[in-house]
Amino acid sequence: MSEPELAALREFIEKNLARGFIRPSSSPLSAPVLFVKKKTGDLRLCCDYRKLNAITVRNRYPLPLIPDLMERLRSATIFTKLDLRGAYNLVRIRQGDEWKTAFGTRYGHFEYTVMPFGLTNAPAVFQHFMNDIFRDLLDRFVVVYLDDILVYSTSKSSHLHHLRQVLHRLRDHHLYAKLEKYEFYQTTIDFLGHRISPAGIAMDWDKVKALVSWQAPRRVKDVQRLLGFANYYRSFIPRFATLTAPLTRLLQKKVRFQWSAPEQQAFQSLKDAFMNEKEDSELTH
């Protein structure tokens, strides 16, 4: 590890031991750790739980469908966005199962007492947790996707009432929003990769512009990444399935990867379709 990574590791261990989020472990398991860089430039410690996830029974609790959430927002004119602090760490690991989350570091062997990022069932568990808290408010004036909360209303007066209910609910459950990430009383807001306003719902171009400079895929995994990204916005792209058919064909097991003229044309047409949607959106918003 580099010096900055070692410093971040020491800080992580000291802070989370003090909080009671981790504790020394004698578990026979030991997930490796790595660091990923946040948008702010800070380092986030992540545990590689791939081996544990491979033998974990999946929790099938569903995450909300993004198109369904967007549909709820079409008539709204004012929005407030909240992002929870701590997120998955708000959920306690079941007593007796902490040893399964053990991870090894330069400074010792530890295990989580709260739910960490990286566990295959963490998103489902956390969504269930949030839905239980906001169940009677969901789709009336609030939508929740994991730790992202959006309060929406058709007027300023009703928005104040709605926002108070949401904030009181958070307070009652000892949940806290990140002050640096909240956005109050917005008429246009970016949420889950979409830009939402009284004029309608469009792609968030700050997220989508990466596609314009995307390099032509060189292997199947590159095609999977490309289509995974593009598919998130397929509802905005006319004839998406037809447009991407030559690329989708490359994902078939018995098809040999070969990037030729039809694939390149489909790739360029896909990028052009996104650019056209951006231009149409700018004319109507």
Automatic annotation (TrEMBL):
A Pfam family annotated for this chain is RVT_1
Domain of life, source organism: Eukaryota
Q: Which residues form the Reverse transcriptase domain?
A: 17-196
List its EC numbers.
3.1.26.4
Task: Tell me a Gene Ontology molecular-function term this record carries.
Answer: RNA-DNA hybrid ribonuclease activity
Family statement drawn from the similarity comment of this UniProt entry = Belongs to the beta type-B retroviral polymerase family. HERV class-II K(HML-2) pol subfamily.
Protein name in the entry? ribonuclease H
Q: Which organism is it from?
A: Micrurus paraensis
Mind giving the lineage of the organism this protein is from? Answer: Eukaryota, Metazoa, Chordata, Craniata, Vertebrata
